[in-house]
Amino acid sequence: MAEEHKEIDALTGTATTGHEWDGIHELNTPLPRWWLWLFYLTIVWAIGYWVVYPAWPLITSSTQGVFGWHSRAAVVTDLAELQAKRGPMMAKLAGASAAEIAGDPQLSDFARAVGRVAFADNCAPCHGSGGGGGRGYPNLNDDDWLWGGKLGAIENTIVHGARSTDDKGHMGNMPAFGRDGILKPNEMSAAADYVRSLSGLSTEPGADLTLGKKVFADNCAACHGPEGKGNREVGAPNLTDKIWLYGPDKQTIMQGIQNGRGGVMPAWGGRLTEPTIKALTVYVWTLGGGEK
């Protein structure tokens, strides 16, 4: 049938396939020889790859290949070589305190290099790649700390976490004053206005700051302090500065008063090695917000 429709295009001298659309004939242009040979070469290469490397899945395993090479084994070897190379310095990290590491230029440089990688792998999803934080996740570059910014405090927070499954971790939640019926809507609104005023933010016209101050003193001062300066023992933030974990707008503050707050940080003590935790501590401390 193909021969019956075979025509030669007058312009190019190439045979057509017999297909025609609105007077346009499809040319049966042969593939270039170099392309065909390259295609055949890829087939030969694929067959050779199947023979040389692990390729075909079996019922309980796979073909092993005549070279016996495995990508997983290569990764294990590379990690072992890296561990052997880092071994002496990691041993020094394990035998020194975070303060000693920070005070030793050589150890500090090594710790920050290791800590940077550990941070990217474990902490960046919440705190951001540069530690800048996000809504509900603290900025580690500033000097505002919920649980303390000294080396010992940072290390303790990393090891035990906050509101995690570790009994030694930081505890303390903000109650749901509205949901649990502790405060009335007008009291929550007044308290939100008063909290905004503590950091110099403007309040709504007619805001009852007198009522807000009383509500704050009766319900919030126990954690945030009578002046709203915060309390690191329970992770209560300082309400008088310009740094807000969830946002400074009244609606966001009202949501916190209504439903409470209490973010969770995992306890990394059982997940990361001791030298890695010390390196991570020094790295976080040197981001810019660490305290002396």
Can you lay out the helices and strands and say which pair or pack?
Blueprint: E1 16-21, E2 24-27, H1 33-52, H2 71-95, H3 98-103, H4 105-122, H5 124-127, H6 151-160, H7 185-198, H8 209-219, H9 221-224, H10 250-259, H11 274-285
Antiparallel strand pairs: 1-2
Describe the structure.
By secondary structure, the protein is mainly alpha-helical. Among the domains are: about 75-170 and about 265-285, Cytochrome Bc1 Complex, Chain D, domain 2 (Orthogonal Bundle), CATH 1.10.760; about 185-260, Cytochrome c-like domain (Cytochrome Bc1 Complex, Chain D, domain 2, Orthogonal Bundle). About 45% of the residues lie in helices and about 5% in strands. The chain is built from eleven helices and two strands, in the order ββααααααααααα. It has a two-stranded antiparallel ribbon. Helix 4 (about 105-120) crosses helix 11 (about 275-285), helix 7 crosses helix 8 (about 210-220) and helix 7 crosses helix 10. It starts with 15 loop residues before the first strand and ends in a 7-residue tail after the last helix.
